[in-house]
Amino acid sequence: MGTDKRTILLDRKTLAGIALDKLESLSSDILISAGDDLPEFRGYRRIPDREAGEGPLGGLISCFPYCRHEQTIVLSCDMPFVPPALLEELLQRFHSPATLPVHRQQVQPLCGIYHTDLVTHLDQQYRKGGRKITDALEDTGTTLLSTERLSLQVKDHWFLNINRPEDLSEAERYVKDH
């Protein structure tokens, strides 16, 4: 996008603020993974990447040792329409190293529940050159849960990922129309 996605405004709120609003309804132990020197936000701990440019996999590896619980909710700030109810259902169905939704054949690794013991395995995969979370999770027994099997009426826009200006425009249209 050419800008820090955490600070992008959608319906007068930053994407980071939208994600925190959802997470605050589920937990008081919230960490913010940031690859740079973003200042503390709303009093939550910010965990910097060990090395610059590690990407989302590096963010998980950096944060998991600081988690106070064995299971952790992961939610990227660029998925502003994921409802807390989806995260709650994933938590209820959590029984493997990770539980991730699959919507329209797309695994959503930045919207899921992880066991923090995965950090060693993920770090090994990273050190071997792996950078994709889904590749690093192979052979871990991760549950890939089709959204068709959820009790919720899943909406496509829940998984809109704001990576491009066009995605932001689509999100703004959705907010305006709803």
What does this structure look like?
With 178 residues, the chain is of the alpha/beta class. The protein has a single domain (5-177), classed as Spore Coat Polysaccharide Biosynthesis Protein SpsA, Chain A (Alpha-Beta Complex), CATH 3.90.550.10. Helices cover 30% and strands 19% of the residues. The strands form three sheets. Strands 5, 6, 7, 8 and 9 form a five-stranded mixed beta sheet that branches. Strands 1-2 form a two-stranded antiparallel ribbon. The protein has a two-stranded parallel ribbon with strand order 3-4. Helix 2 runs antiparallel to helix 4. The protein starts with 8 loop residues before the first strand and ends with a helix.
Number of domains: 1
Envelope shape? globular
Going by CATH, the architecture would be Alpha-Beta Complex
Give the termini separation.
25 Å
Rg result: 16 Å
Strand content: 15-25%
Average pLDDT, rounded to a whole number, is: 93
Helix content: 25-40%
| CATH class descriptor name | Alpha Beta
Sequence stretches where pLDDT stays below 50 over 5 or more residues = none
Q: Structural class of the helices, strands and pairings?
A: alpha/beta
Give a count of the beta strands, DSSP E runs of length 2 or more. 9
Order of H and E elements: EEHEEHEHEEEHHEH
Major β-sheet profile: 5 strands, mixed
The CATH homologous superfamily name equals Spore Coat Polysaccharide Biosynthesis Protein SpsA, Chain A
Quote the CATH topology. Spore Coat Polysaccharide Biosynthesis Protein SpsA, Chain A
The number of helical runs is 6
